[in-house]
Amino acid sequence: MASRVLGGDGDDAGSRRLQRSQGFVEEVLKVIRSDIMSLRIPPDTRISIDQLARELGVSQTPIREALSQLEAMGLVTKRHYVGYCSAPQRTRKQLDELYEMRLLLEPYAARRAAQRMTPELAAHLRQISDAMGPSNPIESYDQFAQLDAGLHDSIANGSGNEIIQDSLSRLHSHFHIFRLRFHSEVTKEAYLEHETLVRALANGDADGAEEAMRAHIQKSYDRLLPFAQD
């Protein structure tokens, strides 16, 4: 395991303190998840709850709750005698299996979503896709990953198949794959592929939506493969 421990540099102290609100734990979760996604917390690194509490100006309770939720997403692990750590990067085998699963489920989900398309869902997908576009600069890599996940989740929900929805939601695939390559070129390419996909979906083009989703997933795999561990 890597020896680095998250603690927040002295220059950061005080600058990241959070204001208490109704969604306080969610705010803490967003900060930690953003640090993991941007690799500020490198993979396989111990996360110090004490140091996070001091850096964010909060008690340990919301941090533990946030870490527990991130553990359920697979972004954090809890190890005996060590505590919470950021999850290791996906191996080549894990990446292959993840994309095999996606290729089995998501093209079919896109086909079914196109067949069941409504004006409301089409508008929703367009809104998400536009938010990922170059005219709307993304504040963080984590934000793009959230939008990407939201788009794919909405398509899965639009399929009307609850087993597909549940299976894909449990993968939390988009947060894992974006950790493999932290680069703006990924967001640009993904946006262009989403545009083709959303256009086919909005038009109710089942064949086009299925093919666009399959092509998008394959291209995503090809982009990330060089960065997967053996």
List keywords for this structure.
two-stranded antiparallel sheet, 4 strands, two-stranded parallel sheet, Arc Repressor Mutant, subunit A, 230 residues, 63% helix, mainly alpha, Four Helix Bundle (Hemerythrin (Met), subunit A), disordered N terminus
Summarize the structure.
It contains ten helices and four strands.
Can you lay out the helices and strands and say which pair or pack?
Layout lengths: L4 E2 L17 H14 L8 E2 L1 H8 L3 H13 L3 E4 L3 E4 L5 H24 L3 H13 L9 H18 L3 H10 L1 H8 L3 H19 L3 H19 L6
Parallel strand pairs: 1-2
Antiparallel strand pairs: 3-4
What would you note in describing this structure?
The chain is mainly α and 230 residues long. It folds into 2 domains: 5-86, Winged helix-like DNA-binding domain superfamily/Winged helix DNA-binding domain (Arc Repressor Mutant, subunit A, Orthogonal Bundle), CATH 1.10.10.10; 92-227, GntR ligand-binding domain-like (Four Helix Bundle (Hemerythrin (Met), subunit A), Up-down Bundle). 63% of the residues lie in helices and 5% in strands. The chain contains 10 helices and 4 strands. The strands form 2 sheets. The chain has a two-stranded parallel sheet. Strands 3-4 form a two-stranded antiparallel sheet. Helix 4 (92-115) packs antiparallel against helix 10 and helix 6 (141-158) packs antiparallel against helix 8.
